[in-house]
Write a structure and sequence with these properties.
30% strand, three-stranded antiparallel β-sheet, mainly beta, globular
């Protein structure tokens, strides 16, 4: 994918260059039995998948932390991939609104009301071989 400073290849982690990157994936969908998001550990032929209610959280925010935070407590050693289902505008809903014709303009979040229950569902699974069945219909 295109990024500041040139192409960014997220197919193999950790990255060669130090840095931090946020990427919002718009409307990922399960493909057959596969979850909307899965990691493939090629050396072990193992996978870890994340399923969630894509009606409530239509997008996925990926945070690639690749030794790009020099301050304590990370000290330039933190290497991680965060995956967060979201209903937001690139984690900026508190400070910015996109123009009406922006592809994420309809991402308005979820309104929570005091005293009213709100529920969601998600699943994290690990497997080898064929993908597990999709855990629910939404």
């Amino acid at each position: 994918m295109a990024a500041d400073g040139g192409p960014l290849d997220l197919t193999r982690l950790p990255l060669a260059a130090d840095g931090e990157a946020l990427l919002q994936v718009r409307a990922p969908r399960p493909d057959g039995a596969l979850p909307p998001f899965a990691l493939h550990y090629r050396d072990a032929e193992a996978r870890v998948g994340l399923w969630w209610d894509t009606a409530q959280f239509p997008d996925l925010m990926l945070w690639v932390s690749n030794r790009g935070r020099p301050e304590f407590p990370w000290d330039g050693r933190h290497v991680a991939l965060g995956a967060e289902p979201v209903n937001s505008v690139f984690d900026l809903g508190r400070v910015a609104r996109p123009p009406a014709d922006h592809p994420l303009a309809d991402r308005t979040g979820i309104v929570l009301e005091a005293g009213q229950a709100w529920r969601t569902r998600y699943r994290i699974g690990a497997w080898q071989g064929a993908a597990p069945a999709y855990p629910w219909r939404v």
